[in-house]
């Protein structure tokens, strides 16, 4: 009777079989990094600065986009989504979006392809390599305003060096910035000239960091030349290419300074990107609320494209 009335005792199980029957499960305590508490006071100023310099302007812009702010500072009140409805109904908005995406695609593709070729040349160990790299980076470190002014003189239809070179080889002069069909390509040419060396510098650093073992193994299997570069080099270089393209993506989507210096969105709005359109709406047409709505649309476009590249980067890192 005494044995029957006793509670069943926990019987030890085999090693690795988990807790014995009748034993309450133990709660796992989350280990807290002892250095986290010491790092928090140092990270707090950066978090506050980010909130003030990034989140506050974004919040203010969102508030402007749903209100009726006038150029004289007065505000008629809350409009809701009226500015967004006006933006989506505007043919100029869709035209600006089309031009923005056109410049983004053309410049990004050509800068990546040319940067890949130039990056391979820059990665070679040849005499004068450092001098060559320094000279190639001059366009990228030059202010975009200065670049726009220089190319404005180069593309002058009468005295510019571009038409003089074309005339020397028997080609008729081109109205670079006065023809609506040519002006977007002229702007793309300037951006490609300025930022291809930047892409090449990142890619050349990535090429130098590639391991040699996969190339040696592929060479033993008979691969050489283009097959070696395409099947081995490019897959290994994909994370570097993704980062370089992501950096250029953010700049290309908000393309403004060079365009405004050279064409101010003309001729006939053929180079009027979303950023230029928003600037003209706010400071030329005196519509700050509508301009804020355009900038929110531009921000959404940047976030979507950057998020897409980040997704590709995470897939490439797997």
Automatic annotation (TrEMBL):
Residues 10-24 have a biased composition (Low complexity). It comes from the Bacteria. Residues 97-309 form the ABC transmembrane type-1 domain. The chain crosses the membrane at residues 38-63, 99-122, 134-154, 182-207, 228-247, 290-312. Keywords: Cell membrane, Membrane, Transmembrane, Transmembrane helix, Transport. One of its GO terms (cellular component) is plasma membrane. CDD domains: TM_PBP2. GO terms for biological process: transmembrane transport. The keyword Transmembrane helix applies. Its main location: membrane. Gene3D superfamilies: MetI-like. It is found in: Cell membrane. Pfam families: BPD_transp_1 (PF00528). It is a multi-pass membrane protein. Residues 1-31 are annotated as: Disordered. Belongs to the binding-protein-dependent transport system permease family. This is Carbohydrate ABC transporter membrane protein 1, CUT1 family.
